[in-house]
Amino acid sequence: MKKRALWIFSILLIAAMVLSACGQAEEAPAAEEPAAEEEAAAEEATMEIPDIEEGKFNVAIAMLSVHDDGGWSQAQYDGMTYLEENMENVHTAYVENVAEGADSEQVFRALSRKGFDLIIGGSFGYMDSMEVVAEEFPDIGYIHLTGYKANEVNFGNLMGAMEDMKYLAGMLAGSRCKVDGETKTGYMATFAIPEELRLGNAFALGLQETCPECTMDVRWLNTWHDPIIEREAADSLFDAGAHVVFTGADTPAPALAAADRDGVYGITYDWSGSCTAPECLTSPYWLWGPVFVEIAEAVQAGTYEFGWDYFDADAGGLGLYGFMEGEEPQPGIADLPEEDVQLVRDTLAAMLAGEFDRFDVFSGPIVDNAGNVVVPEGEKMEQLDMDQFPQWESGCVYCMYWWNENVAAELPATE
């Protein structure tokens, strides 16, 4: 895996509680301990915090949705199952339906008190909570998925180059539109963060490869997982003329909406099992298992570097449904031009061999939808560019706050 040397963001200072020193110095700890135990018991009673197994390396994950949601959380659950089956002397556990914000902080603290050796936070909005708890428990390892913070001691950031697979999905969508005489596609984006612009632009760049005249519309969901909102957004994009709709959220809403119409297609996300309907063209998905095993073994051995861990397709953690070993292409692929399908196969093979990565996806020239050259010819975006908005004043050069020239949408407002 490739480590990225990035900046260290603002360090949260934890103020220590000051005890009264009126001759009670030896009694104070005894008076404080029951309060801590009561707080821990209250947290565990309401959240059903799992127990560790003595003598094993204990790994827990907090998930945003239920473990069998058919999307993001289920891919993580499958990854934990793989970890349990492929690492010796390990015990895994999960807590589902953990809300972002204060609730997640309570869960991470409760898992830490239970004695888990490695704790994984499975959603972007867990980032700040995990940062706080990691400071309190320096002997426990913490890994946060999809954010951008790390303390380089016991709190690390983990992300994969899903832009690789989104780029390939865009190629397939463009080819499908070209064959059917259509030019419009749609993107269901979650939140106005660099990750979502990055993945949307990767799709748009792939779309441009096979259908230069095709465009992409955008609907903002402001949620990671909401079946009703996601279905409404998919219907809205199809109603507006989109021929292929893809998503950055959890549910297979684009495929479900496509199944209720004639001759249109959806592209699902996150979990390989989400692309079962004939109207599903493909699905970029996560294979967390091999990545979790590599990290857990390194943490147990004391060799893992808690920094910014960003893997590409050659790490074995990414998939494109219908094109991986043992998978058959979906019905919507059957009549696409062979040169387009072969381009997808060849590019995927290069990705899996480590010969084509996320920086190749974002290589210049790239022109935005206002006519500006955002990445000049001969240049490539770097990790800092992909992770940051220029408004954050992080020092990025080709910052990820632009839409590719074929995107028919305005940039989202950001804080």
Structural write-up:
The structure is a single chain. The chain is α/β, with parallel strands linked by helices. The chain has 2 domains: 46-160 and 288-315, Rossmann fold (3-Layer(aba) Sandwich), CATH 3.40.50.2300; 162-286 and 322-392, 3-Layer(aba) Sandwich (Rossmann fold), CATH 3.40.50.2300. The chain is built from 12 helices and 16 strands. The strands form 4 sheets. It has a 7-stranded mixed sheet with strand order 1-13-6-5-4-2-3, with helices on both faces. A 5-stranded parallel sheet has the order 8-7-9-10-11, with helices on both faces. A two-stranded antiparallel ribbon has the order 12-14. The longest helix has 20 residues, at 28-47. The chain is globular, with a radius of gyration of 23 Å. The chain starts with a strand and ends in a 28-residue tail after the last helix.
As a percent range, the share of strand residues is 15-25%
Identify low-pLDDT runs: 1-45
Our measurement of the CA-to-CA distance between the termini, rounded to an integer number of angstroms, reads 32 Å
Strand order of the largest sheet: 1-13-6-5-4-2-3
What would you call the structural class? alpha/beta
What is the CATH H-level superfamily of the largest domain?
Response regulator
CATH class of the largest domain: Alpha Beta
Oligomeric state, counting identical vs distinct chains: single chain
Gyration radius over CA: 23 Å
Q: Percent range for helical residues? A: 25-40%
What is the CATH T-level topology of the largest domain? Rossmann fold
Domain module tally? 2
Helices and strands, in order, run as EHEHEHEHEEHEHEHEHEEEHEEHHEEH
CATH architecture of the largest domain: 3-Layer(aba) Sandwich
